[in-house]
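REVIEWER CHECKLIST
Item 1: Sequence provided? yes
Item 2: Single chain? yes
Item 3: Sequence as submitted:
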Amino acid sequence: MSGTTLHLVRTAVAPAALRAFAAYQGVLDDDLGYALHLALRRRFGAAAPQPWRLMPGRDGGPEMLLGYTQDPDALRSADPRAIAQPEAPPDWEADWRGNDDAESALAALFPHPFEAKAMPRAFARGAAYGFGLRMRPVVRYGPRAAEARSAADRRGGQERDAFLAALERRDLAGGNEESDSLDREPIYHAWLERHLGTAAALSAFRLVAHRRIRTVRSVPPDAASRLRPGFAGPETVVDGELTVADPAAFAALLARGVGRHGAFGFGMLLLRPAGR
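Item 4: Structure as written out by the authors:
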């Protein structure tokens, strides 16, 4: 992060065009995260913001895409006609190859230029902020759990909801539902603390919303089928307050996002003044 300034950027997203683009690309899932990822990369190339989050419109207004970037000028000046196909394995080329209908939807998807606002060049140790976060609280499967999974379960990759993993650990340890009940909120609180690491300390935490959503991802190049099977994963929205513990680590955390799936609309820490 040395010598660079992180910028918060935003622009309106046309929902009908996004759904049309997703349908033309065959990636119409519950949150349209993969479709918006494809649209951003095709429209803005390497200048596309990441992490990002799609926010509901206010008072009937359009949905707003918020994101972080270190080069807002490149983002605002990106010419879609000059954007090269992103670097990707050859077997994934179909994801980026469009047709006339998809390109028409893409042209209408971002009707306005991005606005940009510089974030602090340096965060003070001990500074307090409120935050909002849409996260995917997943953990990796251990060897025993991975071996026991069904073929259908394996479509979701090597991750599982941290809460479900905690339930499995309790059951394996011989706990029972009455004496060892578990709640999602403390499990997700602990997950977020681990991912903040030394960057920041949580002083308040609240689970706002949680659901399982069906998502799609590109199949790996060695997959037997070229179809993208849908799989379910957690979508968790939280807010709270945090205190900066390591300014450099905190700035890096903002830039890369919290946890995995930052390219698909998860992990963006939205900051606000403490107490608000």
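Item 5: Key structural point noted by reviewer: The two ends are 28 Å apart (CA to CA).
Item 6: Recommendation: ____
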